Recover the amino acids of this structure.
């Protein structure tokens, strides 16, 4: 049993490798829902969706969101009705949000809907939202408080960041199965996801950090920051804003006493001593996943460390 | 000021002609909502939509529903999630239902939403739903009680019909502007729509029949039945089920004392005497609208009778 904390595209790529090296039925994914957003009266769970679509083999190969071969007719028409169109949603993709929203209105918890969707798409690993309650990641910027998607997609991470808030998380509870998946795991993997807005939100759900800490000897993280920059997304900017350095060492410090092992990119070999001083076991490999071979190799490397 | 009671595709074609012969701003359309249906958690108003899309110039040229050039990705994907897919909805079209449903959940009345949508699509005639309340046309068949769309689309009018019910209509009130549009009209047109499930529903909204009767001298209907058959839809079957003959005479009897004038197709000239005996003024022309020229000619003919 392996449990993976997951953000969006970085986690999705890692998971593509992981399902090749362990039985997919032995994998549980705990998915960030802090950047869920309601648009057009529909509930959108971007991180759950990109992980689900990727494991279903239907995700767009490059853009990091959405479904391959999708069209954008619904969004185009919503634009004619005056709706905001800055958040790209394809026509296949809309079906997921329409289905999820209908279920939510009928009282289904997000966890049950997520499970139903991954089954419908033939995804074998379990996917659990971190919580069934609504939490919202807000970015406090010089231009005001923005929903994470507004900051990321609408404003393209331009506004200087002062703080990050996980609104509502203090009264959230882990979704059914989340604590068990951590407690019973033979290994817990934190893939190269954004520490602040993908993994930090999961860790902020009351009970999750404690459940992981209790299994510290089985926890391995992969740095999403290589040579001081993120491959994708604003992790570096957000790290700095919260007082961490935007380096692999900064990531290791952020996770701190949760980690037993840390996967450092070979390009960052000079940082291994600093991380070892945090009482974390460091292993080096290539962490940049350009294609299926690299994804599989990284997953194999991490699984061997568990 | 001309007010048109409208069903779906028959009314939409007639209206295409009408906007060519009178100022579109002087036209008010009262649209049937009895065959509205909730699917996928979205509210669909098929008759309002086909009239709006047609007048916006974006309707599919042949199929009688939906938007030209549309794709069906959302519906295809909803099918993967186990949703019923018998009711065709394109991706452009979904935007209308998503927008309408969001507005309804925020408390907007259907009439305000309908007006917003027709403005967004550049439609000049006013379009009013017959009522802002939910009413459902049910077809009582040998196979049970079916929603009109189930009877029409899913079962393709196969089950023998025993009765038609307008559920909820007795407690509905005309939408804002409906009674005024009838009272103030210089002419009221009943285009070649289904008498039972398109026009009958509108007439069943308390107050509407009286408002039309008070303007009887200005009311003209066009028969949707030519040579004993409907050009489209199940009007003939439903007429017979309710005890009317499936002829132009049957249609004239159904509308009865609401009519001042009746437009009979030349192919049905043998029926003119029977209709005149109902104290209705009969005029004959070609009522089959094969293209823009016929639509315009029919509209011109009807307007001259008002």
């Amino acid at each position: 049993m392996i449990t993976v904390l997951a953000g969006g595209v970085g986690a999705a790529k890692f998971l593509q490798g992981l399902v090749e090296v362990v039985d997919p039925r032995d994998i549980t994914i705990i998915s960030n829902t802090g950047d869920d957003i309601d648009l057009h009266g529909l509930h959108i769970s971007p991180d759950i969706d990109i992980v689900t679509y990727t494991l279903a083999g239907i995700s767009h190969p490059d853009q990091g969101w959405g479904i391959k071969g999708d069209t954008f007719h619904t969004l185009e028409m919503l634009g004619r009705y005056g709706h905001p169109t800055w958040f790209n949603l394809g026509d296949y993709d809309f079906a997921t949000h329409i289905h999820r929203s209908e279920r939510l209105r009928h009282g289904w918890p997000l966890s049950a809907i997520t499970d139903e969707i991954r089954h419908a798409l033939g995804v074998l690993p379990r996917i659990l939202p971190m919580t069934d309650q609504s939490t919202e990641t807000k970015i406090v910027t010089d231009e005001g408080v923005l929903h994470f998607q507004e900051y990321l997609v609408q404003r393209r991470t331009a506004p200087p960041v002062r703080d990050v808030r996980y609104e509502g998380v203090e009264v959230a509870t882990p979704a059914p199965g989340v604590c068990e998946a951590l407690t019973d795991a033979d290994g817990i993997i934190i893939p190269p996801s954004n520490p602040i807005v993908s993994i930090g939100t999961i860790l902020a759900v009351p009970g999750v950090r404690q459940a992981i800490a209790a299994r510290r000897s089985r926890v391995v993280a992969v740095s999403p920051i290589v040579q001081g920059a993120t491959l994708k997304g604003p992790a570096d900017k957000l790290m700095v804003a919260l007082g961490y350095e935007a380096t692999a060492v900064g990531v290791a410090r952020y996770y701190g006493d949760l980690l037993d092992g840390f996967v450092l990119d070979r390009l960052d070999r000079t940082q291994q001593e600093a991380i070892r001083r945090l009482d974390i076991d460091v292993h080096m490999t290539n962490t940049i996943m350009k294609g299926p071979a690299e994804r599989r190799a990284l997953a194999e490397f991490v699984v061997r460390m568990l």
About this structure: The interface with chain A takes residues 40-42, 67, 70-71, 73-78, 80-83, 90-96, 98-99, 101-102, 105, 116-117, 120-121 of chain B (CB under 8 Å). Residues 91-105 of chain B form the longest helix (15 residues). The mean pLDDT of chain B is 96. Chain B has one domain: 2-135+169-305.
